[in-house]
Amino acid sequence: MPSHIPSPDRTEEFLCLLTEHEPRLARYATLLIPHLQDSDEVLQEAKLVMWRSFDRFETGTDFGAWARKVVFHQVLKFRRRPSRRLQPFPEETLELLASEIVGLEKELDYRQTALAVCIAKLPDDHRRMISLRYFDENPIEQIATQLGRKTDAVYQSLSRIRRSLHRCISDAIQVQGRSV
C-alpha cells in the first residue's frame, strides 16, 4: 500500500475539492452499489486512492469527473471481491448506469435540495421518524419501541410521510418547470 500523500501545498486544494464534491460522490457510489454499508466502504477506499494520487491530478481540470472515475474503479474492484454481495447487473450495465448518473447530476442535486426543504417543513415528530428510519437506519420495530407506538402504526405513518414528501418535491419541481 503506497504511503504517498499530496505535497503540503496541495493538501488544502484536495480537501476543498473533496468537500465540494463529496455529496455527489456519495450519491454516485450509492446509486452504483445499493447497499449503504458497501457503498460507504467503496467511497472511503476511493477517497484514499484520490488522496494518494492527488499529485497526478491537474489543477484546473474537472475534479468531479476525475473523482467519479476513481469511485467507479473502486466499485468495479469491490464487485470482483469473492466476499461481495450478489450484484443485480453485469459490469456493462453498470458502465451505462454510471454515465446516466453523470447526465442526471443537476436534476439529482435539485431533487436533493427539494427533499431537504420538504423535510424541514414536516412537523417535528415526522422529521424525527424520518431521521430514525432513513438517516439512522433503525428497523421499524425499534422505532415503534422508541416512540411507544405499534409497528403497524409506524409503517402507516412512514407511508403517509413519504407520500407527503413526494407531493412536496413534485410541487417544487413543477414550480421550477422540471419534469418529475
From TrEMBL:
Residue ranges of every copy of the RNA polymerase sigma-70 region domain listed in the record: 17-84
Domain of life, source organism: Bacteria
UniProt cross-references to InterPro entries, sorted A to Z: RNA_pol_sigma-70-like, RNA_pol_sigma-70_dom, RNA_pol_sigma70_ECF_RHOBA, RNA_pol_sigma70_r2, RNA_pol_sigma70_r4_t2, RNA_pol_sigma_r2, RNA_pol_sigma_r3/r4-like, WH-like_DNA-bd_sf
Keyword annotations of the record: Sigma factor, Transcription, Transcription regulation
Domain RNA polymerase sigma factor 70 region 4 type per the UniProt entry, residue ranges: 114-165
Family matches, as Gene3D superfamilies: 1.10.1740.10, Winged helix-like DNA-binding domain superfamily/Winged helix DNA-binding domain
Similarity annotation: Belongs to the sigma-70 factor family. ECF subfamily.
Name listed for the protein in its UniProt record: RNA polymerase sigma-70 factor, ECF subfamily
Organism: Neorhodopirellula lusitana
